[in-house]
Specification:
The chain is an all-alpha fold. It is built from 9 helices and 2 strands; from the N terminus they run H-H-E-E-H-H-H-H-H-H-H. It has a two-stranded antiparallel ribbon. Helices cover about 70% and strands about 0% of the residues. It is globular and about 50 Å long. The chain has one domain: Rhomboid-like fold (Up-down Bundle). Belongs to the peptidase S54 family. This is Rhomboid-like protease.
Length: about 210
C-alpha cells in the first residue's frame, strides 16, 4: 500500500512527547506508576467505602503513622509511596511524576532515579512523621516532589547550557512547589522534605 504521510506517523509520538516529555520504553517511572495503580486497586478490594480505601486498610498496607514508625516499623517510611487515598489522588501523582520525571530519569539513569525516588520519599515521610506523628499519611507526592527537586537541581547545575526559554522552567517548577505547599489538605512538611531531599540526592547521584 501507499506509505503513510510523515505527519500521520509523527502525530502520536508528538502527542506523547507533549504530554509526557522524555518518554521512553522501559522507564522505571512508568513501571512504578503501574505498581502504584495496582496497589490502589488492591486496597479497594481489601477494604473500601464509596470507592475510597478505608483507614484501617491503608494502615494495614503500610501507611505512615508516627507511633508505629517509632516502634520500629521503618518500612512505613517507604510503603506510603505506593498507597493512595482516592483515584484523583493517584492520578494527580502519577501524572505529575511522569510529566516532570522522565527527563530526570534520562539524565540520571533508571537505577539512580530508583534510589532518588525511594530515598527522597523515605526522608520526606520521616520528616512528616517527626513533626506530625499522629497523622496517617499515604501518597507518592513525597517522592514526586523529590523528582521535582532533582529536576530543578539538574537545571541549576547546567544553567548556562539551557536557552532562556527553558530557564523559565525553573520559575514554573518553583511556582508549582509553592502552590502544592500552600494548598489545603496536603502534607506540607512531607512535600518540603521530599523537594529538599530530591535536590540533595540529585547532587550526590548525578553521573
Amino acid at each position: 500500500g501507499a506509505p503513510r504521510a510523515a505527519g500521520a506517523q509523527d502525530g502520536p509520538g508528538q502527542l506523547l512527547e507533549l504530554l509526557l516529555p522524555g518518554y521512553f520504553e522501559g522507564s522505571f517511572l512508568v513501571r512504578i506508576s503501574l505498581a502504584e495503580a495496582a496497589m490502589f486497586s488492591m486496597s479497594l478490594l481489601l477494604g473500601s467505602s464509596h470507592l475510597l480505601p478505608t483507614t484501617c486498610c491503608l494502615y494495614a498496607l503500610g501507611a505512615s503513622w508516627g507511633p508505629a514508625i517509632a516502634s520500629g516499623a521503618l518500612w512505613r517510611l517507604i510503603t506510603p509511596v505506593f498507597l493512595h487515598a482516592s483515584l484523583p489522588h493517584l492520578l494527580s501523582n502519577v501524572l505529575f511524576q511522569l510529566r516532570f520525571g522522565l527527563n530526570v530519569e534520562r539524565q540520571l539513569g533508571s537505577w539512580r532515579l530508583l534510589g532518588l525516588y525511594v530515598l527522597s520519599g523515605a526522608f520526606a515521610n520521616l520528616v512528616s512523621a517527626a513533626i506530625d506523628p499522629m497523622k496517617l499519611a499515604v501518597g507518592a507526592s513525597t517522592s514526586c516532589l523529590g523528582v521535582l527537586g532533582a529536576a530543578v537541581a539538574g537545571m541549576v547545575r547546567h544553567w548556562d547550557e539551557y536557552p532562556v526559554e527553558q530557564r523559565r522552567w525553573v520559575i514554573y517548577a518553583s511556582l508549582i512547589l509553592v502552590c502544592l505547599l500552600l494548598s489545603a489538605h496536603t502534607d506540607l512538611f512531607g512535600h518540603l522534605g521530599g523537594f529538599v531531599g530530591g535536590m540533595c540526592l540529585a547532587a550526590l547521584l548525578a553521573p
